[in-house]
Amino acid sequence: MKAINRLVVGAVALLVSGLTAHAITNTTIAVSGTNIVLSWPSYGYEIYLIQSSPTLNPCVSWTCLTNAYPASLSQTMFTLYGLASQQSGGAGGGSGTNVNISPSPDFASSSTMTVNSEPLVVPADGLGGAVPLMLYPPGFNLSGFTILDPATGESVSGAGYVVSSLSMSSVNNIQPLDDPSNGASGLQAGFYRVFHIPNFLASFSGYTFDGPTFIPVDYSDPDADVNYVDNTTVLIGGQPSDYAQFMPYIIEGVTNWGVGIYFDQYPNGTNTIQLLTTVRQSDTFNADTPEMAFSNAPAAITIGNLVAFTNWDDLIWDNTNYTFQAQTEPGMDWEIDIYDVNNNFVNDQTGYSSDGNISWTWNLTDYTGASRTDPESDPFFYPVITVEQDSGSGQSGGAQPNKSGSSTRAMPAVAAPYPSVGQWIVTYLDKYYEGSTNAAIEYQYYYPAIQTIAGGPTEWNVPATTIPIEFGTNYSQTARNSSWATLVSYLYDPDFRNLYYFGHGNANSIGGDINVLSVSNTIIGSKALPGSTAYLTSQYVHDTVTFNRYSGARPYRFVFLDGCCTANGTWPWAFGVPTNSEPLSYYTSSANRRHTRPSAFVGWNVEIGGPGWGTIVNWWAFREDWMAEWAGTYEEYLTWSFQDANTDSGWISPGQLSSNLVIDGYGEMEYFDYNYGGDWP
Q1: In what order do the strands lie in the sheet with 35-42?
Q2: What are phi and psi of 652, to 5 degrees?
Q3: By residue range, what is the domain housing residue 332?
Q4: Does residue 616 belong to any structural domain of this protein?
Q5: 236 with 346, same domain?
Q6: Beta bridge partners of 339
Q7: What is the largest CA-CA distance in the chain?
Q8: Can you tell me the mean pLDDT for 148-162?
Q9: Pick from 617, 669, 630: which is nearest to 456 by CA?
Q10: Is residue 648 part of a domain?
Q11: Is pLDDT at 375 greater than 80 in this prediction?
């Protein structure tokens, strides 16, 4: 019964050792006959997304020409056949073409071409990034744009500005390399962009995954800078995995970013693996934050665990016992040792499995007979399993692990029962209205409303902690970062299971450093400044709090993220709440395989505020009233509390509320329901 080092992940060999993936720079475009050729430098292991658009108008979507396009060593080329429309004229008698290549919109650092001295084209209304003038086709109407000289800072109106023809001097010796059947035929010439897709930096051929494994990923700056990766989803067999996390890992002294995957929670055999990456394309957090979703091609993998936990339960949910379950080879002796959060030995059990199935129901007492059901002192447990082949038995068939020998390894952490009472966090951006023209008016309602929301739990002696998040230029970057770190520490505390947040947000992120204001000086979002960690992503909350395999899962009972578009992405998933409305019967069915208690997530599916969203007085009256209704003396469903609050405050129309306020999970939950340790099951 000795302690072991609990290593979260192992390492898969790098395809390219010691290389850091670079952004795509110096992308060129050329014409060979009637073909268009895109070309850019590469190492040979990357993959790319290539898109086309007839215009840079933000209302026109980009068309995918190819995805997961493989790189060539040193230089990668992509050919579009028969798209070059030749025009007469041009400098020196050469021909011009209306073919161009553009950078990503609203993300200047994502440019696929390095241009330092050429004039730049900037939308006159400021709604878009700067684009090199040389990328626009001859005859392009630049009215509504401003032409900027980056060397001097001087600018002129684009009205009447004439774009010169593209020189043909760079197209000599260019040969088509792509198959004409690549699907590009029939497209109109226009603008093109190339993205470097995050991809596994590992060869899976001949490799068998056994237990937790770290796989490095080719995240590339700027197309997929890790600071802008809001969500990384691993698909196993085409289904999103809850057993993977986005994380750094040091290999030979170098910090690599990638995914740690717990393959021991999957059955053995062949499968597929794929990576979906959501990358924020802006430092601004609001309803219009642009995001790119990248996907690599599925790859075949082999899973062969010596010990697997395919029917594992990460929660002690019935408060009386817990059953450890595992699978191994037939004919194995096994021992399970349990350690507490301080690495002290708790209890153990030994046994023999003739068919490879291991099961032990623990009565939640330690080796002295003392109860270990207090979540404050035992928030989670570390079990360790040792299996050893019995010399008198032989391996038989079946879908069991197929390795021989013995092994000692960590099992998934087991979270303690729900605390005696689920505490509340009420948090908000403390200078949210800083910089707004009507800030003085709004502040007189802001703080009283927050205090009223926090007062709902305390009225019934349910502990609540109010956390003002330092926001705005009144604070240093260090102070703002520290404020969010404080919030994370509270979220991580297993005593807290209810959360209300007011502030900026979007589908996958909340927070920011300072307000972003419109031309009319109203707040339209927030912005993260250089060096900022003053925000949270849904991925981080999922991996660190609610699905943390290393230190125990702690799903939340109630979450209301009162910010723009928080219901449009992965926030319910991040807090362990079902991603749609569920009746109470769902939580007692086999569909609720984690045995989570009834829970609810509340968020908005649109940008809130501004015209059509009532007065500031009614805005804050609604926020005071929903808590007063839900925590009042009458038994009231969560859904009713919002409807009644809207009626009482006169904020917005009933139809607007029902269309834009989303309640996932158990919307019929009453204020006291399932918030105490013995309430479930």
Answers
A1: 28-32, 35-42, 74-80
A2: -130, 175
A3: 322-415
A4: no
A5: no
A6: 345, 382
A7: 94
A8: 66
A9: 630
A10: no
A11: yes
